[in-house]
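Hi, here's the filled form for the chain we discussed.

Project: internal
Contact: R.S.
Residues: 482
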Amino acid sequence: MNWKVITWYIGVSLLLVAALMTVSGVIACLMPGDQSRIPLLFSAFLTAIVGGYPILFVRRGRHNLTFQEGNSIVVGAWLMACLFGMLPFLFYGREFTPINAIFESISGFTTTGASILNDIEALPRGLQFWRISTAWVGGVGIVTLFSMITAGADKSTLSGAEISTVAREPFAGDRSTSFANRMFLTYIALTLVTFFSLKLTGMAWFDAATNAMSACSTCGFCTRNTSIAFYANPAAEVVLTFAMLAAGVHFGILFLAILRGRPKYIWKSETIKVFLSLVVLAIVVVTADLMVNGHYPSFGEALRDASFQVASISTTTGFATQDTTLWPPLSMSILIICSLICGCSGSTSGGIKIDRAILAAKGIYRKVGLTVSPHRVQAVRVDGRMRSDELVNDAYGYIFCYLLIVVVFAAVNLSFGLDFTTGVTASVACIGNVGPGFGEVGSMSNFAAFPAVLKATSMTEMLIGRLEIFPILYLLRSIRIK
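And the returned structure, exactly as it came back:
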């Protein structure tokens, strides 16, 4: 592999991080008495120096990226962005010890939304905006974002390395660059629409902007200690519910439906119909369970909180209006299932993805059918298109690796003294980039009490989940071969 060109592109990603730090620093300068302006601007300066060095002094030459190089750039860019992204937190201090600073940075960039902060509202506005900015950039993808300024074959290689095969499959005839452009335009449009809609509900501009960025990135970071429950605003909850569900849908299809004026594409997509149908089913079951167990005095209140929480968890956003650890066991079980499968590929949602679940289910159905009728010709079709055996096997492999990682990291959590509910759901929440689990890491709790070693393993799991497992394995394989 050409390490010069890899270093050059990682430098570009750090310049992007430095630019976002500068924007957050400018916001801090506009806020009277904001104590985060120096940490942010100094961090931006250091990051720009490190990122600019390879741009100025490393000659990448004329070299078309290989898949291995593109994959190394993706993993390296994410790791370096998370590492330098912790600097503003570290220089600010207070609750941000070194392990807490890197935890908050990784949680943001991976759009997990798990936090170590006990008093979020005590943070100055500049640092709050930086915290949300990490999530917004992480939602669309660090490499996808900076590949917008890259031309030629390299742009296609970088986009293809970061965006999974199952996400590109509905647009298999298009170039990776076209698909990445569609995703980015849809992401910006969805963020702006959500921002203005939240403003119309009466939210302050800063809260509307940060909550819109957090909802569309499906991160769940909020500037309030009690998350969205702070606002007690039903209209804002409705806006955020639709924003989260939209962010959990394939952005390429949203692009065709909204920006191209072809809404029929949403209803023609089998994947989206299955996803939304399961969300509605989960809302109905949770609402009924809450009413039967007497947790709410009225149907309207139960439906309101059930709808918001199911949408939040099934899209891996993690916003909260209620403490779901107090809900009945059936409701909690439904939310755990939602946090495993989650939204569609090609969205900002984490988890296994409904696309892979559909592929695996249809692959199993075909296997059973061929066992009963060996001479029967039966293909796996999704959205009317035949899917290759390779893609179905990829879904099997991904789901197996995903659940294996959940079990391994849950065992690690339990071995360090966490109770069963906390240990297992923390593992599910981190690998799926969901954020909240149950027990000590519930919707109104955080990871602050975790020992340093479990914070480190949780961070590892977040990165593995956000990069969708295989890029990490590809990199390890490439290094081992070399």
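Let me know if anything looks off before we file it.
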